[in-house]
């Protein structure tokens, strides 16, 4: 038996139209007195609940063009304007100022000049030779970009992650391989020690890493544990006043060249991610060795290898 279909012009349709008119009126009231620019709301839901104004967006143009925004605007969690309804958009908001600041602008300019003069012209040869240009470490150190996130107490620049991202961006323009090794050194190794190391460890390792005298690496990946880091097999067993490491790591950026390594290992097999600890290992420690440098398809100037641990004692 077929059931009769409800008419689209029934009470439900009328209530929906009333709700739409009420929502439009609430927006007009909310925006009253603010400079606005016309736009069209379309079909995708868009909500900015944490901002002081629910319609704040960076789609601003002082020339007042017609702007078509493929969004629905949620005035509050209970009111949505349906598609193809015309609304209004505030003209400007100081909270959406994307200027990076004079210090970071100067850093970008400095790196752009350096990369153009010292790196870009060498990029093809770096890739061909499968060899990181070792002179870059000292040059980066002299520029102060190896310890961007570290305080001046240890020779760092005392800036932050935004500055580090800008440095990565500009170095990458010249050579992605060099930028990869730079990032592994300055962020994965230097920043890890800076954030989590003891005062004694910071004093011992950071100054030489930041000056470029020493090279840093971080070892997480293993032959059977890449992105699934919880599956790592490298063991760190407590023996007396020290830990003893046994196992291997692979695909370690800066592995062939580093002096200082941050090594992740399992200290408790029963605790999954909470059973993993980080250790600092030095290049010449007994039982620690490195495999041959990989001949990769890409990022060839970023030196990579396996690491092997045979009863390596970490005090």
Automatic annotation (TrEMBL):
InterPro entries: Acyl-CoA_DH_CS, Acyl-CoA_Oxase/DH_mid-dom, Acyl-CoA_Oxase/DH_mid-dom_sf, AcylCoA_DH/ox_N, AcylCoA_DH/ox_N_sf, AcylCoA_DH/oxidase_NM_dom_sf. It comes from the Bacteria. The keyword DNA-binding does not apply. Keywords: FAD, Flavoprotein, Oxidoreductase. GO terms for biological process: L-leucine catabolic process. Its cofactor is FAD. Pfam families: Acyl-CoA_dh_M (PF02770), Acyl-CoA_dh_N (PF02771). Gene3D superfamilies: Acyl-CoA dehydrogenase/oxidase, N-terminal domain, Butyryl-CoA Dehydrogenase, subunit A, domain 2. Residues 217-312 form the Acyl-CoA oxidase/dehydrogenase middle domain. One of its GO terms (molecular function) is flavin adenine dinucleotide binding. Residues 11-24 have a biased composition (Basic residues). Residues 102-213 form the Acyl-CoA dehydrogenase/oxidase N-terminal domain. Residues 1-25 are annotated as: Disordered. Belongs to the acyl-CoA dehydrogenase family. This is Isovaleryl-CoA dehydrogenase. It comes from Pseudomonas savastanoi pv. glycinea.
């Amino acid at each position: 038996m077929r059931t009769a279909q409800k008419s689209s012009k029934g009470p439900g349709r009328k209530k929906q139209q009333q709700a739409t008119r009420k929502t439009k009126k609430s927006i007009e009231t909310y925006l009253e007195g603010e400079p606005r620019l016309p736009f069209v709301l379309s079909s995708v839901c868009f909500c900015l609940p944490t901002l002081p104004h629910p319609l704040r967006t960076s789609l601003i143009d002082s020339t007042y063009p017609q702007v078509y925004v493929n969004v629905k605007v949620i005035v509050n969690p209970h009111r949505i304007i349906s598609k193809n309804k015309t609304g209004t958009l505030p003209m400007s908001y100081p909270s959406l100022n994307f200027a990076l600041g004079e210090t970071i602008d100067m850093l970008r300019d400095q790196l752009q000049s350096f990369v153009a003069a010292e790196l870009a012209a060498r990029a093809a040869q770096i890739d061909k030779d499968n060899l990181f240009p070792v002179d870059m470490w000292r040059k980066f150190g002299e520029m102060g970009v190896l310890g961007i996130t570290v305080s001046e107490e240890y020779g760092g620049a005392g800036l932050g992650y935004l500055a580090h991202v800008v440095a990565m961006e500009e170095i990458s323009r010249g050579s992605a391989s060099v930028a990869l090794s730079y990032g592994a050194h300055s962020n994965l190794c230097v920043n890890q020690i800076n954030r989590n190391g003891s005062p004694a460890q910071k004093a011992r390792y950071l100054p030489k890493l930041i000056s470029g005298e020493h090279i840093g690496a971080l070892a997480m990946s293993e032959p059977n544990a890449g992105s699934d880091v919880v599956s790592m097999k490298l063991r760190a067993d407590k023996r007396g006043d020290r830990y003893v490491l046994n196992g291997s790591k692979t695909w370690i950026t800066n592995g062939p060249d580093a002096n200082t390594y941050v090594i992740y290992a399992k200290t408790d097999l029963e605790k999954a991610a909470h059973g993993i600890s980080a250790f600092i290992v030095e290049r010449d420690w007994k039982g620690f060795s490195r495999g041959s440098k990989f001949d990769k398809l890409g990022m060839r100037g970023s030196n990579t290898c396996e690491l092997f641990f045979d009863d390596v004692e970490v005090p």
